[in-house]
TrEMBL record:
<dbReference type="GO" id="GO:0009231">
    <property type="term" value="P:riboflavin biosynthetic process"/>
</dbReference>
<feature type="repeat" description="Lumazine-binding">
    <location>
        <begin position="134"/>
        <end position="232"/>
    </location>
</feature>
<dbReference type="Pfam" id="PF00677">
    <property type="entry name" value="Lum_binding"/>
</dbReference>
<keyword id="KW-0686">Riboflavin biosynthesis</keyword>
<dbReference type="InterPro" id="IPR001783">
    <property type="entry name" value="Lumazine-bd"/>
</dbReference>
<feature type="repeat" description="Lumazine-binding">
    <location>
        <begin position="37"/>
        <end position="133"/>
    </location>
</feature>
<protein>
    <recommendedName>
        <fullName>Riboflavin synthase</fullName>
        <ecNumber>2.5.1.9</ecNumber>
    </recommendedName>
</protein>
<dbReference type="InterPro" id="IPR017938">
    <property type="entry name" value="Riboflavin_synthase-like_b-brl"/>
</dbReference>
<feature type="domain" description="Lumazine-binding">
    <location>
        <begin position="37"/>
        <end position="133"/>
    </location>
</feature>
<keyword id="KW-0677">Repeat</keyword>
<dbReference type="GO" id="GO:0004746">
    <property type="term" value="F:riboflavin synthase activity"/>
</dbReference>
<comment type="pathway">
    <text>Cofactor biosynthesis; riboflavin biosynthesis; riboflavin from 2-hydroxy-3-oxobutyl phosphate and 5-amino-6-(D-ribitylamino)uracil: step 2/2.</text>
</comment>
<comment type="function">
    <text>Catalyzes the dismutation of two molecules of 6,7-dimethyl-8-ribityllumazine, resulting in the formation of riboflavin and 5-amino-6-(D-ribitylamino)uracil.</text>
</comment>
<dbReference type="InterPro" id="IPR026017">
    <property type="entry name" value="Lumazine-bd_dom"/>
</dbReference>
<dbReference type="InterPro" id="IPR023366">
    <property type="entry name" value="ATP_synth_asu-like_sf"/>
</dbReference>
<feature type="domain" description="Lumazine-binding">
    <location>
        <begin position="134"/>
        <end position="232"/>
    </location>
</feature>
<keyword id="KW-0808">Transferase</keyword>
């Protein structure tokens, strides 16, 4: 039986004692290998049943669900609010995933409490329809909801993001917010914000409308932008390091 906590109420001394590996982070961000793929189309909203320190010293997160456990196996990947996590235990009504310290540092999962709703999606199978866009479940960082305004039965949501992420977000492009594939409407570099609109159906089937202004959301930008940036940087570096006589 795991010790029950709200992860953001765990002793603050715990995470700082862990190695931050700051010097390794640029290399980690360059790793663009794809192990599991999602579409960003949420299959169901699950509910956090239990969370906190596990017997082995890590963190466990137990989630009540019905759809995503229908054909689950140990070791399968399930995106929880857009974070790709590995199933370590399951039955017909719930499943458990492990959380690494770096996952807590990088995502909004530390704000979860018992009873919190979460977006769930199983990893894509080769025969599945691609209803959204390519989502890896590798959260790039978090944003903060700065406004939520209704227009008819739709909901405008504005999110503030770090400029390092905002450069990959473009109007009419894709972004995964808490694992939900969404189309960006506008981007404001001046305010470091972007916005999107949720139609009535989406509002009823994802967790974003249940959140409040000031809360965090997980963000994963479109991987194509990162591939293009990496290619351009590599090409430019190669060009600069190539002797002039070889360029002709």
């Amino acid at each position: 039986m795991m010790a029950t906590h709200s992860l953001n109420l765990l002793p603050k001394s715990f995470l700082p004692q862990l190695p931050t590996f700051t010097s390794l982070r640029p290399k980690l961000r360059q790793n663009l290998s794809i192990r599991s793929v999602f579409t960003g189309i949420v299959e169901e909203m699950g509910q956090v049943k239990d969370l906190g320190l596990a017997d082995r010293g890590g963190f466990d997160l137990k989630i009540g669900a019905r759809v995503v456990v229908e054909d689950v196996k140990l070791g399968d990947s399930i995106a929880v609010n857009g974070t790709c996590l590995t199933v370590t235990h399951f039955d017909t009504e719930e499943f458990t995933v492990g959380l690494a310290p770096e996952t807590l540092r990088k995502t909004s999962l530390e704000e979860l409490e018992r009873g919190s709703l979460v977006n769930l999606e199983r990893a894509l199978q080769p025969v599945s329809r691609m209803g959204g866009h390519v989502v890896q479940g590798h959260v790039d960082g978090t944003g903060v909801i700065v406004s939520m305004e209704a227009e008819g039965d739709s909901l405008w949501v504005k999110v503030k993001a770090d400029k390092a992420l905002l450069k990959y977000i473009v109007p009419k492009g894709f972004v995964a917010v808490d694992g939900t594939s969404l189309t960006v409407v506008d981007v404001s570099d001046q305010d470091s914000c972007f916005n999107f609109m949720l139609v009535a159906y989406t509002q009823q089937n994802v967790v974003i409308p249940t959140k409040k202004v000031g809360q965090k959301v997980n963000l994963e930008v479109d991987i194509m932008g990162k591939y293009v940036e990496r290619l351009l940087l590599t090409t430019a570096t190669f060009s600069m390091n190539t002797p002039q006589e070889n360029k002709s």
